[in-house]
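Researcher: Next entry in the queue.
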Amino acid sequence: MREISIFTDGGSRGNPGPGAIAFVVFENKKMIYKFSKIIGKTTNNLAEYLAVTAALEWLVKNFSFAN
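Model: Structure for this entry, 67 residues:
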């Protein structure tokens, strides 16, 4: 069985302030992809949400979910 785990994080230095996002993808406990990006001035909450969104967009583009 295929097991996919994704860990995300986003943050800003100050609120708002300079921000960044990151995520890591594991398949069957092996890291298969990592991503990070500086996103400019943002709030901490928005950075967290953008990290999740970026991870989901990557997942949709790179995996088939057909049975």
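Model: The mean pLDDT is 94.
Researcher: Noted, moving on.
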